[in-house]
Inverse folding.
């Protein structure tokens, strides 16, 4: 296992601290259990963009759901700005937003109506929220004629843009992005990546990102963790991970890094979302 630039911050000073994390799911009556996560240790500093890279089924989404207080771990400890995600779930939810590929909306309401409803929950003034909502949706490339249509009439990619805009309407201290650019066209994907980078600079938001997009992980993440079958097999800056892979003087791709560290070809055909 490769660990580089491991944080030396105190447990309670990290934006996110994960130690000895395990999560198991039952395979069915009498069939035992399957491990989604095995002994995960991760520390994320405030203001850092930390990426978790792995194919579908590697445990990425399970990890994010635990941090977001949506799942309870079977072992280990997770803290968000010092708050335990199990014992202090309410405090954690106050400082965390999550964007995922299965974002929930009021399907009969429009993108603007969904965003304004979310803004009221966070106490954002109506006029300011409406202006910010329109600006974000326009910046993300949502067509103007879609702003007032019911969400159920939008494509999956367009709905994902609305989910991202909703999370950015009132930037949290910790933003959890679970496959945020899935379903987006290349231009929209790049626009979302730029928004993530700007959010860190302008709002000092800490971002915890999961992805199976190798190029995306390398472009925007300060550090990366590589997950394989629920295990953390490597952690470090993208350039440092590449430096540990021999390619006869040629800079290796992240796919080659994954192959070297796991002994497996990059296979993202699975539809599992663990």
């Amino acid at each position: 296992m490769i660990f580089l630039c491991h944080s030396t911050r105190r447990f309670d000073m990290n934006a996110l601290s994960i130690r000895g994390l395990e999560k198991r799911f039952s395979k069915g009556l009498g069939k035992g259990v399957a491990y989604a996560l095995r002994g995960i240790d991760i520390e994320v500093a405030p203001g850092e963009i930390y990426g978790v890279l792995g194919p579908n089924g590697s445990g990425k989404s399970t990890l994010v759901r635990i941090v977001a207080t949506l799942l309870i771990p079977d072992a280990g400890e997770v803290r968000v700005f010092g708050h335990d995600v199990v014992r202090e779930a309410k405090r954690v939810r106050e400082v965390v937003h999550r964007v995922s590929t299965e974002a929930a909306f009021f399907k009969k309401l429009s993108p603007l109506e969904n965003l304004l409803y979310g803004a009221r929950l966070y106490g954002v003034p109506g006029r300011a929220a409406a202006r910010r909502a329109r600006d974000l949706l326009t910046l993300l490339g949502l067509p103007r004629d879609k702003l007032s249509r019911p969400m159920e009439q939008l494509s999956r990619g367009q709905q994902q843009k609305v989910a991202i805009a909703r999370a950015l309407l009132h930037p949290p201290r910790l933003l959890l992005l679970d496959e945020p650019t899935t379903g987006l066209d290349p231009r929209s994907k790049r626009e979302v990546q730029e928004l993530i980078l700007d959010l860190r600079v302008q709002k000092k938001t800490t971002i915890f990102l999961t992805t199976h997009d190798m190029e995306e992980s390398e472009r925007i993440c300060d550090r990366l963790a590589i997950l394989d079958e629920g295990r953390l097999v490597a952690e470090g800056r993208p350039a440092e991970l590449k430096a540990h892979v021999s390619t006869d003087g040629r800079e290796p791709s992240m796919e080659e890094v994954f192959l070297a560290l796991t002994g497996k070809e990059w296979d993202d055909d699975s539809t599992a979302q663990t």
User: Anything to note?
Assistant: The chain has nine helices and eleven strands.
